[in-house]
Amino acid sequence: MTRSGVSTVAAAWQAGDRTPVPLKDATVAWALAAHTELAEIATGYGYFITVTELAERVQEVSGVHTAAPTRTWMEAILRKVARRCHKAGEPPLTALCVRQNHTVGEAYKYVLELAALPVPDDLELHAAYARWQCYQFHGAEMPEDFTVPPLTPKVASRRRPAAKMTTQVTHTGAAAEPAQPAREAVCSQCFMQLPRAGTCLNCL
Known about the structure:
The protein is mainly alpha-helical. It is 36% helix and 8% strand. It contains 6 helices and 8 strands. The protein has helices at 23-41, 51-62, 74-88, 109-114, 123-137, 153-158; strands spanning 2-3, 6-7, 13-14, 49-50, 64-65, 97-98, 168-169, 175-176. The strands form 4 sheets. The protein has a two-stranded antiparallel sheet. A hairpin with a 2-residue loop joins β1 (2-3) and β2 (6-7). The longest helix is centred in the first third of the chain and has 19 residues, at 23-41. The chain is elongated and about 55 Å long.
């Protein structure tokens, strides 16, 4: 397709016949697929997925593809999923989607914004509790000796103390055994760190 002598390419297209898909329709399709994929991942305790992997999965599942760099559109998709979970009163499935270094990063702060919560000192720990809530909500088989949810392998390895190691796996089933550091007490409802008095000021 050309316009004023300059070649243009549709931002998104349908698999097979490459029919152009309006970007608005594409993002809706990707968000629906992302919610479905993340909900499926949440059925396995300790599972998670990277942003890059999820971007590939949502395109395959929805049948809508794009050549745009993942960084230019996936954050908007995750925000749509976060809003859907928040409106439905469900745990934030976007906590299951991490970057290549296994951190949720700045994008996860949108979950806190929706819940009107302050940004905690330890964002990754908050996300770990949110993932635990997702596993429980979506019927994953939870460990009987559960005490605190594991951090993702790469995050835990960077914090590794000389202590017993626990396991978290990727959605592909590849296991890792990073050590889990000591955790501060957190609120069972919002996962914010509790003050010494033990009463969550955010949930009063």
